[in-house]
Write a structure and sequence with these properties.
267 residues; binds zinc ion; CNF1/YfiH-like putative cysteine hydrolases; alpha+beta; 5 helices; 6-stranded mixed β-sheet
């Protein structure tokens, strides 16, 4: 984990892994520290849509932009726990389309995903310079957003043999208690998920979302070496990351994950 600037912002990245070290590729997973928000938004909440004070959120964005690579535009979504993936190109107008994934082959655009326990999933083909960012909670994972994301990447010019994926800070099997019935739905839809669902207390099960996503990515043709997990369980590390479960299921702040290629002109 890197600590940046005076405010104590943290960015999880992957270092020493081929594609992620590509010049002009920017990516990272911000934590919750270093912001100005209070209460359940303490402190680096970057969502304007969870009830936080807009002026404080603006201050948080200034701090984030100060330590991000110099992207010209940052694209965000109205995330709805679905599997719609938008292609973000030169004509991006700053709107927040409804959906849970974005891909781009346009330098200068950062694709940004908000989470607080769900899995932020970043993809890159460093040679084709195609990037993708996805939001994978249980609904999106069950509906197959990992494989859909890979397809959208290849449609945008990426080669499946070169795509690398990072699964960012998100709730772990240690803490992600769900109804056993949901665990059964996972194993019915994705047989390999059986090893990712553990018995819990009573009628509950413990679900390993990043594990299910990893298996789905492998089933779709990625090699295990192309997939990495970055960062801890958000609920276990809730002093460093927003975690809805740690907040007792209430709406809380949201942290930002991003990926994109820096425009040549942007330095
Ligand atoms: Zn945990």
């Amino acid at each position: 984990m890197e600590t940046t600037a005076d405010y104590g912002l943290t960015i999880e990245t992957t270092q020493g892994r081929g594609a992620w070290e590509t010049p002009r590729l920017g990516h990272g997973f911000f934590g919750r520290t270093g912001g100005a928000s209070r209460g359940r938004f303490f402190s680096l909440n970057l969502s304007r849509h969870v009830g936080d004070d807009p002026e404080t959120v603006a201050i948080n964005w200034q701090r984030v932009r100060a330590v991000m690579p110099p992207f010209v535009r940052i694209a965000t979504l109205n995330q709805v726990h679905g599997v719609d993936v938008h292609v973000i190109g030169d004509d991006y107008d700053g709107a927040r389309p409804s959906g849970d994934g974005m891909v781009t082959a346009t330098p200068g655009i950062a694709l940004a995903i908000f989470t607080a326990d769900c899995v932020p999933m970043l993809m890159v083909d460093a040679e084709a310079k195609v990037a993708g960012a996805f939001h994978a909670g249980w609904r999106g994972t069950l509906a197959g957003i990992a494989g859909i994301g890979l397809r959208r990447m290849t449609e945008a010019g990426a080669d499946l043999r070169r795509i690398e994926v990072l699964l960012g800070p998100s709730i772990g099997r240690c803490c992600y208690e769900v109804d056993a019935e949901l665990g059964r739905r996972f194993t019915a839809a994705w047989p390999r998920a059986a090893s990712r669902v553990a018995p819990g207390r009573g009628s509950k099960a413990m679900l390993d979302l990043r594990g299910v996503l990893t298996d789905q990515l492998k089933d779709a043709g990625l090699s295990p070496e192309s997939i990495a997990q970055v960062g801890p369980c958000t609920r276990c590390a809730s002093e460093l990351f927003f975690s809805r479960r740690a907040a007792g299921g209430q709406t809380c702040g949201l942290q930002l994950s991003f990926i994109g290629f820096i425009d040549g002109a942007a330095g």
